[in-house]
Design a protein that fits this description.
mainly beta
């Protein structure tokens, strides 16, 4: 019996030829992450091998586009902590960082908490040396956990005296890049959940087609839940040292952004004096700015200037902000604007925003 197995394939766009750069190892493995490494034109791959009556094993490969393996390391997983996803980062030719989210399973998988994260893990692999992995529960992230607990309070999920007992489990969309700052590593992600809307069915309904046709009866669709989009609640930022210790964490509320596309909404901007998390929503730019030693922060919101000061925005259809170059960001969106004569116009705008 043939069991389909995942592979990673290199495609040469000039010749159309393909090469399997990571060949199947066993019928019981899955990809956790892979990341191009532009410094030496290689690919870093993380795999999890599920072994019968044994703890799962995580393998890290560095391969060339021709399929040659240049680096291989591994560590044994934890049957009560399942890795959900992660990002890879090559420190140098010997050391690889793998950081991401995990779920506490207690040895069992839960359908209700599927893909929900209980914390972040940090792993470091050294070729020919020891590998380390550490797990960090979200309940030990003071800023993020407090923000989530306040959200639970507002939704009346828990009574006032039970807030400290929350076991935080949230879906986290990890940012694609791990940043290295002074030998430490910054990972960012955004908490979200899929939102659905209930549409009740109306059964059999009459409809009048005129005196020549009379009434005809038709069936309305049955009651159903309709996907509305991904609801973003918070962005989270965490810094680890090379030994896997959590040095610092913080978060920012993302205004309950609703998006049909799962993508990075918050941007991480940094210079020698400060680090900031920046996002845009409903025509407004929001930022949380941290001092260089991360000991203090300020939060700001502002609306960008319009081309004509007398104009007034009546509708913001969408707003996005993305990194551009150096410390500049690109703000763009679609708005309906009314001028002082009362006429409306719809515009697509693009603005350059400086982080100073």
């Amino acid at each position: 019996k043939h069991t389909p197995q995942p592979v990673i394939v290199s495609l040469d766009l000039n010749t159309g030829t393909t090469i399997e750069i990571v060949k199947p190892i066993t019928s019981a493995f899955e990809f956790l992450s892979f990341q191009p490494n532009e410094t030496d034109n290689s690919v870093i791959v993380a795999l999890r091998i599920n072994r019968k009556k044994q703890l799962p094993e995580v393998l890290i490969y560095t391969t060339t586009s021709s399929g040659e393996i240049h680096h291989r390391a591994s560590f044994e997983g934890d049957k009560e902590k399942e890795l959900i996803n992660g990002r890879l980062y090559a420190v140098n030719i010997r050391d690889i960082i793998f950081c991401g989210t995990y779920q506490k399973t207690g040895g069992k998988k839960s359908k209700s908490n599927q893909n929900k994260s209980h914390g972040l893990f940090f792993a470091r692999f050294s070729e020919g040396g020891d590998s380390i992995i550490s797990y960090h529960d979200f309940n030990n992230f003071p800023n993020f956990s407090n923000a989530i607990k306040q959200r639970y309070e507002k939704r009346s999920v828990l009574e006032k005296g039970d807030v400290k007992e929350i076991d935080i489990a949230y879906q986290i969309f990890l940012h694609n890049t791990i940043k290295e700052v002074d030998g430490n590593f910054i990972v960012a992600g955004e908490a979200f959940y899929p939102e659905y809307e209930y549409q009740p069915g109306r059964g059999v309904s009459p409809k009048y087609y005129g005196m020549n046709y009379g009434y005809h009866y038709y069936y309305q669709p049955e009651s159903r839940w309709v996907f509305k989009g991904f609801r973003y609640t918070h962005a989270i930022l965490a810094m680890f040292n090379k030994s896997g210790a959590l040095l610092w964490e913080n978060s920012i509320s993302t205004s309950n952004i609703l998006s049909m596309k799962l993508e990075e909404k918050a941007n991480i901007i940094e210079d020698e004096e400060a680090t900031a998390m920046v996002y845009a929503h409903d025509g407004t730019i929001h930022a949380k700015i941290f001092s260089s030693d991360y000991s203090s922060s300020i939060q700001e919101s502002f609306e960008p200037d319009l081309l004509y000061p007398e104009d007034k925005v009546t509708v913001n259809f969408f707003t996005q902000i993305k990194p551009w170059y150096n410390n500049y960001l690109l703000l763009y969106g679609k708005q309906e604007i009314k001028n002082r004569s009362g006429k409306n116009r719809t515009v697509f705008y693009v603005s350059k925003v400086a982080f100073e």
